[in-house]
Write a structure and sequence with these properties.
By secondary structure, the protein is an all-alpha fold. The chain is built from two helices and no strands.
Length: about 100
């Protein structure tokens, strides 16, 4: 059975629309992966800085005359940052 020219035109337009949707889905997926990768890099950076801060606390905690470097508030803040980073990383892993 021969297709009418109008029907062929409609089918072609539908095909073009479907291709555009597929391309948009691929672009969104790429953007989402890029966003996730950037978040993970930032979290690794924060995590590394928090670990460096803990090392400084340990290193300077031995000296009584350097109390400006070591106090319970700093230790508590660093611990809180590490917990936040872990929670965010777990949320990212759950999305994958």
């Amino acid at each position: 059975m021969k297709k009418s020219p109008k029907r062929k035109e409609v089918e072609d337009k539908c095909e073009v629309i479907e291709e555009e949707r597929e391309e948009e889905r691929e672009n969104n997926s790429f953007d989402e992966n890029l966003r996730r990768e950037m978040c993970e890099k930032v979290l690794r950076f924060i995590d590394k800085n928090a670990i460096d801060e803990i090392r400084e606390l340990i290193r300077y905690g031995l000296y009584e005359d350097l109390q400006e470097f070591v106090n319970p508030w700093i230790a508590s803040e660093v611990h809180g940052i590490l917990n936040d980073v872990s929670a965010i990383q777990a949320a990212i892993d759950d999305q994958q």
